[in-house]
Design goal:
Layout lengths: L1 H55 L16 E3 L2 E6 L18 E2 L4 E2 L5 H5 L6 H11 L8 H5 L26 H5 L30 E2 L3 E3 L9 E2 L3 H12 L1 H10 L1 E4 L6 E4 L5 H8 L3 H7 L3 E2 L5 E3 L2 E2 L5 H6 L5 H13 L9 H6 L4 H6 L5 E2 L4 E9 L7 E8 L6 E7 L8 H13 L1
Parallel strand pairs: 4-5, 7-10, 12-13
Antiparallel strand pairs: 1-2, 2-14, 3-14, 6-11, 8-9, 14-15, 15-16
Helix pairs in contact: 6-7
Length: 434
């Protein structure tokens, strides 16, 4: 009887062991299935964003959130979210994740921004600014070679344009605090697991938040024909005559010429404009007239214009970095666009926002810095499989400058951890419990 009891106990123990193992394997299998579902939700989300951009981002327009879905979008039993940013001022809910596409032209371009522009960014140091300029300069020799040679493993200064924003990690003088600040998982809010170094209750991001390498605007129409170069008198006169007639065209062109000399030695010379804003100011065009030709004009003859900042979507921080701007004028710009959402079709509205003779407008007239069009967008997509398991996160950069949406860049950010905030987590946990 004792032997039978021991054998029975052994068999029961073995049965319980295998039952426990099978339960663990069942849960592991369930997790793997959820992970696969989340991966497929990411792929489905990417295709969905391609559709949204192809349909709603025509002619450089930023798609409105009312035109597409960006949170808890179902793909089978999985769901995806597109992590965005709040470009309002002040931010209504600094502790709540915002969802939507992000305009890459709302940021400063690493390959075109000047020393002064880069130097205005929060957490930026002179060493990092000089390192960035030296890194992208083919002929640079900023004394950083020794730093790169002593790194483990050693590497060389690139001497060519940045290809990704994360490449700035390699630049002399950068630290993780400068790069990402409080926002360790790069979702735009201060999560409970992140340090609040300034103890101000809101996220203070690093410089990566405000940088891009993708912002560029095509100098062609959708059919491939070139835009009119405002610094070509012949091209410009033809465009003005076509839109406003010969008399008005002559009146506008007169504003763009300078007369020098006296008597029989009078010389009339066409004076090129630094950018579209200065052209608008000098030409005497009304806002309505400027809006009529704005989609057809550009500065220069290059296929693309690089690094323009979209004043319709840029944050106060980015606007503050532009020539002539400071935090006060940047807040003024954001407040104006919040109050006048239907008057943002061209860059002319910034003159109304800041005043025609203001120091900020004079600074912006010094070059071609701003736009109201966007052709590159970031889709930071996070997905969760069935029952709130199988979290995945992938960031995509899409380009529509040739008329169709295509992926320029893809980066897996799952390693950064949960980025959807507490609200989404609680809702998922509530569904799983129920």
């Amino acid at each position: 009887m004792v032997i039978v009891l021991w054998v029975t106990l052994g068999l029961v123990s073995i049965a319980l062991y295998f039952a426990h193992s099978m339960a663990l394997e069942l849960r592991a299998s369930d997790n793997r299935v959820s992970a696969v579902a989340a991966d497929q939700a990411i792929e489905g989300a990417a295709r969905y964003v391609e559709y949204v951009l192809t349909t709603y981002a025509t002619n450089g327009v930023m798609p409105d959130l009312t035109e597409y879905q960006a949170k808890a979008v179902p793909v089978g039993d999985a769901h995806f979210w597109i992590i965005g940013r709040d470009d309002s001022y002040p931010v209504a809910h600094p502790d709540r994740v915002v969802f939507g596409l992000v305009d890459e032209s709302s940021k400063l371009n690493l390959n075109t921004a000047s020393t002064n522009t880069l130097g205005m960014l929060p957490r930026m140091t002179s060493d990092v600014v000089n390192g960035i300029l030296d890194w992208r300069n083919p002929n640079g020799n900023g004394g950083t070679e020794l730093y790169y040679a002593m790194a483990q493993p050693p590497y060389q200064r690139k001497g060519a344009p940045f290809e990704t924003v994360d490449e700035v990690r390699l630049v002399y003088g950068t630290t993780m605090d400068i790069l990402v600040g409080d926002d360790l998982n790069r979702n735009g809010v201060l999560d409970s697991s992140e340090p609040d170094k300034d103890e101000n209750g809101q996220v203070d991001p690093g410089i990566i938040e405000y940088l891009t390498v993708y912002s560029r605007e095509p100098n062609t129409h959708s059919d491939g024909t070139a835009l009119t170069n405002i610094n070509s008198p012949t091209q410009l006169r033809t465009l003005l005559q076509s839109n406003f007639g010969g008399g008005r065209a002559s009146s506008i062109m007169t504003q763009l010429y300078r007369t020098t000399g006296q008597g029989t030695n009078v010389t009339t010379t066409f004076v090129p404009s630094n950018g579209l804003l200065q052209f608008y100011q000098r030409s005497g065009l009304s806002e309505t007239e400027f809006a009529e030709i704005y989609p057809d004009i550009t500065v220069g003859a290059a296929p693309f214009t690089q690094g323009l900042v979209n004043i319709n979507t840029a944050s106060v921080t980015v606007l503050s970095c532009l020539p002539g701007m400071d935090s006060g004028s940047a807040q003024q710009v954001v407040s104006y666009r919040q109050s006048n959402p239907n008057n943002l079709g061209t860059i002319a509205w910034i003159v109304d926002a800041l005043g025609r003779g203001s120091a900020a407008i004079q600074g912006l007239e010094g070059g071609d810095y701003i736009t109201t069009r966007s052709f590159q967008f970031a889709a930071d997509i996070a997905a969760v499989g069935p029952y709130g398991r199988g979290y995945r996160r992938v960031k995509f950069i899409f380009d529509i400058s040739d008329g169709t949406a295509r992926i320029l860049y893809r980066q897996d950010l799952t390693r950064l951890g949960w980025a959807l905030g507490q609200d989404v987590r609680q809702r998922l946990l509530g569904k799983e419990a129920s």
